[in-house]
Design the sequence.
């Protein structure tokens, strides 16, 4: 278990801690008529929608591991093989050896405002989890606790697809860049694609020319630094889960639009 001040995860933690500070306080001040309560509720739903666009698992919990909110990426990531497990409205661990570090990290964040980076699980299922305290709101006596789930792969597939479309890569070139981001060598990619190594090297050269990347390492770095976005195919489910009477988000029908090099890209 590491202190986040000593890791690169501190930058990510600071961002989400700053975002949480924008959430409305649990006890409003001054007039709080129905129209203001409705506006606050709508703002909460909009923030939940925003968190669901990120392909990065996020949870809001308390010192005992009770879950107040988790985004879609977290629900997807917390499968039967993940070191963290959902048990009703509580968060637990798959292995008993991880339960004490998790409990201590949650307690430290909630009661003492301590940030921690946990390494949970074993082998291929080993993941990092950042535990970030959130400043108390209103009359709260404890910090809230945000959990940021580590990514299982360097480049998400949807992100690679967007990147490929933005740079006019062919389907074959897109498959190559996905292989490179998955840490396959050109030889391994050639074997997986059933083509010669010379073909893969030619495609890598074309990709570098189109993207301006000076090397394979620079290419993978470009993709790994892109925003982690989830597919718009999940949007209809979000619309179905919206409260009755709520106006469906336009993105649910059309999907989010991003402009790259002057062109509109739809997820």
Sequence:
């Amino acid at each position: 278990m590491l202190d986040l001040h000593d890791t690169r995860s501190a930058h990510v933690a600071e961002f989400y801690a700053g975002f949480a500070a924008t959430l409305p306080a649990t006890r409003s001040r001054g007039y709080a008529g129905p129209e203001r309560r409705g506006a606050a509720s709508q703002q909460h739903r909009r923030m939940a929608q925003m968190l669901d666009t990120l392909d990065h698992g996020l949870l809001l919990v308390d010192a005992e591991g009770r879950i107040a909110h988790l985004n879609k990426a977290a629900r997807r990531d917390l499968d039967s093989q993940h070191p963290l497990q959902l048990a009703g409205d509580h968060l637990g661990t798959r292995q008993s050896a991880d339960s004490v570090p998790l409990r201590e990290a949650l307690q430290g964040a909630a009661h003492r405002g301590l940030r921690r980076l946990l390494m949970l699980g074993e082998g291929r299922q080993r993941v990092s989890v950042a535990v970030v305290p959130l400043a108390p709101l209103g009359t709260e006596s404890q910090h809230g606790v945000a959990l940021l789930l580590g990514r299982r792969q360097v480049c998400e597939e949807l992100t690679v697809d967007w990147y490929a479309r933005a740079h006019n890569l062919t389907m074959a070139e897109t498959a190559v860049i996905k292989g490179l981001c998955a840490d396959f060598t050109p030889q391994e990619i050639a074997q997986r694609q059933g083509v010669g190594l010379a073909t893969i090297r030619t495609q890598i050269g074309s990709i570098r020319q189109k993207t301006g990347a000076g090397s394979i390492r620079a290419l993978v770095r470009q993709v790994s630094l892109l925003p982690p976005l989830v597919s718009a195919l999940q949007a209809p489910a979000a619309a179905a889960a919206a409260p009755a009477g709520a106006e469906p988000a336009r993105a649910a029908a059309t999907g989010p639009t991003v402009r790259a090099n002057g062109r509109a890209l739809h997820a």
Summary: Residues 34-52 form the longest helix (19 residues). DSSP finds eleven helices and nine strands in the chain.
